Amino acid sequence: MHAHTERPYLMNTWYVAALSTEVGEEAFFHRTLLDTPVLIYRRQDGTPVALHDRCPHRFAPLHMGWREGDDVVCLYHALRFDCAGQCTHNPHGNRHIPKAAQVASYPLVERDGFLWIWMGDQAADYDAVPDYGELVSGHPNSVGYTYMPVQGNYELIMDNVMDLSHIDHVHGEIITTRGQLTPLIPKVEDTEAFVSARWEWRQTPAMLIFNQFLPEPEGEARHFFHITWTPPANIQLSVGATQDENAALDLDGCTGQYDLHTTTPETVDSTHYFFATRRNHREEDGEYNTQKIQAMHGAFEQEDVPIIEAVHQRMGTADFFELDPVLMSNDVAPVKVRKRLESLIRRERDREDKGGGQAGRVA
Amino acid sequence: MHAHTERPYLMNTWYVAALSTEVGEEAFFHRTLLDTPVLIYRRQDGTPVALHDRCPHRFAPLHMGWREGDDVVCLYHALRFDCAGQCTHNPHGNRHIPKAAQVASYPLVERDGFLWIWMGDQAADYDAVPDYGELVSGHPNSVGYTYMPVQGNYELIMDNVMDLSHIDHVHGEIITTRGQLTPLIPKVEDTEAFVSARWEWRQTPAMLIFNQFLPEPEGEARHFFHITWTPPANIQLSVGATQDENAALDLDGCTGQYDLHTTTPETVDSTHYFFATRRNHREEDGEYNTQKIQAMHGAFEQEDVPIIEAVHQRMGTADFFELDPVLMSNDVAPVKVRKRLESLIRRERDREDKGGGQAGRVA
Amino acid sequence: MHAHTERPYLMNTWYVAALSTEVGEEAFFHRTLLDTPVLIYRRQDGTPVALHDRCPHRFAPLHMGWREGDDVVCLYHALRFDCAGQCTHNPHGNRHIPKAAQVASYPLVERDGFLWIWMGDQAADYDAVPDYGELVSGHPNSVGYTYMPVQGNYELIMDNVMDLSHIDHVHGEIITTRGQLTPLIPKVEDTEAFVSARWEWRQTPAMLIFNQFLPEPEGEARHFFHITWTPPANIQLSVGATQDENAALDLDGCTGQYDLHTTTPETVDSTHYFFATRRNHREEDGEYNTQKIQAMHGAFEQEDVPIIEAVHQRMGTADFFELDPVLMSNDVAPVKVRKRLESLIRRERDREDKGGGQAGRVA
User: Fold this and answer.
1) Residues whose CB falls within 8 Å of the CB of residue A351, separated by 6 or more in sequence, listed in order
2) Tell me, what DSSP letter sits at residue A313?
3) What ipTM does the predicted assembly reach?
4) Nearest residue in A to C99, CA atom
């Protein structure tokens, strides 16, 4: 547990609980999110639901049980609960259902290939479910999703993505900027709603993930990266290249892709890392799509994750800022994200202390 | 360590240290009991003895050493101790035996196939060694014993046995009551000396462990369960079936079996689970006896233990009652057991605080 | 963490970081020493250097990076550091090198086959690097080195060596004294600079590691052991045998060997155990030399280490003296070592409390 934080997560917000594809039609899915074990499954109409994965009677994990229609039956003593967590059947004795026989249920919304969960104690703000419709705006074969468990704190993953200066050092040939990115000072924007960073540069040849789609594969191309963090842990990333000097440096003007990196703490020491990517070229090629998401997954898993996990080990239980990190121009964006998140968590906690109720169910 | 308890065990009482068969004639046996490492072995006359499994000199485990007659010699520096823990030989220097060269020894009684140990600081009450002579009152082939290590708190195992309503949900065909048990409200007795619960019902056919021994295997039969807990952690269970309407619902009147479930904490997070069963039918069939104890062992290990261990994980370090369990009619007996045990532990601690000495050796 | 110690190590002193042979010409070597991860490598001229194995920017382990000449480049963002830990290149933005971009470097001296490291905050005392030149004073084939990781506290290893009375009980035939050592009370010297112990005895035949080199292999021989501890954790041991009644009981007069046992805490619960031995007979036989160091390594690893690790487990987090060990004449030397070390650690801490600066970098 990181020493400096009483509760280290923003609670009243949406996190990704799972990829849509992780939760099948029938089977129970379960995962620990923000220290809390969660059962996820789909009703017969396909709507996903999330319950605290612990029976309120004798605390057996509900995912060990079975389904009856849309209800869940606990393996241990066969108490049955509906999708809202209300006990609907007690087979014991006079079959009276105690008022307290209620499992916590969590608002869950399926959108853009993700299941978004709200685990705070305040009423879920359904207007605030993130909209990453951009991911699903093209041909179905143009978008891929993947998931990685990481043995490290989620903020280290955000640090990694918010400072793209690492890519020439950590990653291999296919996404190298050939040293062009590192000397740049990104343009950082820091508003109430987001923190963004932007890089623009020229390189020859273009990034190898794009150059084959450009008129002159071996020629120079203009490139851009644009990343935008929104709380608690969502980072949109656009990247593209063009050889048209008049084209805009955005996904309309460039051959490029739109990515989402989003993380959900499992505990303070482990993280669920979700990633999705949509490209604006060779959109219909399903085989290329499969190769592409596998390549991205491989790069993260083999190149970023080992570093992130080693950093987590080296930091031990210390807070990042207490360790007096040496900060440079490439750290502006990730540091702003850390500060903003810290401030949001503090504000949430202060509100609770003033009588706003106890946020953050304890598992 | 469970948060609510300073010392979570009743100390001045008898626990099972091992099955008789676990401790051979010559070899050392060792096991951690109530957080304390214990060495157990048999004197040349077969009498079992128990010593703290730690040399008082430099703290080597005595079980790493060797025997000299009935004495134990420490591997590290060859100090020798007798069965009472007294140092009988120091080979070093002037061979003086320091007064403090004494290993704690624990009263140990072999009875009914078990080795019973007393680990409290008060004088052992030999009159209080439990008498489960019922187990060994029949043909030798009518009784079986088994042992299971469980990664969970011992009280969760008592909860499991004290509330038999789980058997139709957790267990397979051979001991199902076909749903007849669950709606019953057991008759619970709660006296100074024990907590018991009793169920009676009819089912068709009888439990499959019994029906083949009844006149009409596919016909209806009357059944009973009778369980009796005595402190700290012993549960006797009788179960039987009969098709004679005039027969008593007990082991004289029924085809049935007498079982003992008893647990000894290894730590607050792990338990030694001992089980014995004697049946009153096909008593001489050794092969059937072997199959029977293996089947019982398999049912516990594959069906109960995974749930108990999962519940232990879900409860974390929290106290059972602090988690506000939803309690129902089937929980009356296990809750009375928990409350009674809590009260006995508190009473023992209060007595010590008033000057009765320090119970519970620290390992 | 042992309960009684705020900081359980003497810091301003030299410890062995590695055997010379463990650190190759090119490759990075890394090891945790006194709770601190350390990177060790050799400059192009062969001189070894030691740095804190953690980049001051985002805390990646430097050993994951690569070399540029004598400098180290961090894998994550390519910051480059020289052998003194000074950042020499920042490829980011305006390439400004922040003043704080500095890795802790540790004084490291290669001597007698070991790399000695100084991890305290006071200036390294180069005059105090231990001199074990005796090890390398003979033919290269007369000396051997080995390393063992031990899952136990380093003081338990010193206890083991300082009290040789264990060897007749723990070790096999080749170094037995045939019971002659155990009844002896060693002559112990305790000065400001060291604690030593000495045993002299006769046995028939001589120790089997020596008897083949004596005139009458099966005859009686006089023997000696002489061990000398110096802080923090170095124990020199001489042992020999002679059949010449006029010969001195030392390595000039006897067939024997000079050993060094030295330990460096990895953590309070684990230790790096280094051992070297030089013999004064059959000095040029390389094959015998290999067999000899393998046999010594085997004896420690298979006979001492399992006991030390078991003792560590049995002691748990308790302090040795708080457990009220029964102490005997054979414990005089190891107890003096423990007390002396405790006093040196306390003195170092007191000095710091009085304003002498904070010793013991926190990793």
Assistant:
1) none
2) H
3) 0.93
4) A326
Element holding A167 (H helix, E strand): helix A167-170
pLDDT digits (tens), chain A, 363 positions: 344 445 689 999 999 999 999 999 999 999 999 999 999 999 999 999 999 999 999 999 999 999 999 999 999 999 999 999 999 999 999 999 999 999 999 999 999 999 999 999 999 999 999 999 999 999 999 999 999 999 999 999 999 999 999 999 999 888 899 999 999 999 999 998 999 999 999 999 999 999 999 999 999 999 999 999 999 999 999 999 999 999 999 999 999 999 999 999 999 999 999 999 999 999 999 999 999 999 999 999 999 999 999 999 999 999 999 999 999 999 999 999 999 999 999 999 998 888 654 444 433
Cβ <8 Å between A75 and B183 = no
Residue C186 contacts residue C199 (beta carbons within 8 Å): yes
Token pair for residue C87? 């950042």
Measure the CA–CA gap between B278 and B140, rounded to whole angstroms.
9
d(CA C167, CA C154) in angstroms, rounded, equals 19
Who contacts B210 (Cβ-Cβ below 8 Å, separation ≥6)? B221, B240, B241, B255, B256, B281
Give the span between the Cα atoms of B245 and B225, in whole angstroms. 17
CB atoms within 10 A of CB A159: 23
Contacts of B140 (CB under 8 A, 6+ apart): none
Tell me whether residues C163 and B91 touch, CB distance under 8 A: no
**Closest by alpha carbon to C18, among C189, C211, C273?**
C273
User: How many C-beta atoms lie closer than 10 Å to residue C115's C-beta?
Assistant: 22
Tell me the β-bridge partners of C8.
none
pTM for the full predicted model:
0.94
Residue C122 makes CB contacts below 8 A (sequence gap 6+) with: C12, C356, C357, C359
Interface residue of C169, C170, C303 to substitute, partner B, most B CBs within 10 Å: C169
Contact B15, B106 (CB under 8 A): no
Chain A contacts of B329, Cβ < 8 Å?
A: 92-94, 96
Q: How many CB atoms lie within 10 A of CB A171?
A: 17
In whole angstroms, what is the distance from residue C238 CA to residue C257 CA?
A: 6
3-state helix, strand, coil in chain C (%, to 5): 25, 30, 40
Contacts of C84 (CB under 8 A, 6+ apart): C105
Asked if A307 lies within 8 A of C91 by C-beta distance, the reply is no
Give the C-alpha separation, B341 to B155, whole Å: 9
Strands (E), chain B: 14-19, 29-33, 36-42, 48-52, 66-68, 71-73, 80-81, 87-89, 105-106, 108-111, 114-118, 143-150, 187-190, 195-203, 221-230, 234-242, 255-267, 270-279
Of B245, B259, B251, B330, whose CA–CA distance to B297 is shortest?
B259
Contacts of C215 (CB under 8 A, 6+ apart): C243
Residues B277-296: b if buried by 16+ CB within 10 A, e if exposed: bbbbbeeeeeeebeebbeeb
The contacts of residue A350 (CB under 8 Å, 6+ apart) are none
Question: ∠ at Cα A34 (A31, A35), nearest 5°?
Answer: 75
Using a CB-CB cut-off of 8 Å, the residues of chain A touching C78 are: 168-169, 182
Contact C77 A184 (CB under 8 A): no
* Three-state secondary structure call for residue B315: helix
Instruction: Decide if C60 and A310 are in contact by the 8 Å CB cutoff.
Output: yes
Chain C environment of B61 (Cβ under 8 Å): 310-311, 314
State both tokens at C246.
């006029």
Task: Please name the residue that has the structure tokens 């405790």.
Answer: C342
* A53 backbone dihedrals φ, ψ, rounded to 5°: -85, 55
CA gap B53, B30 in Å, rounded: 7
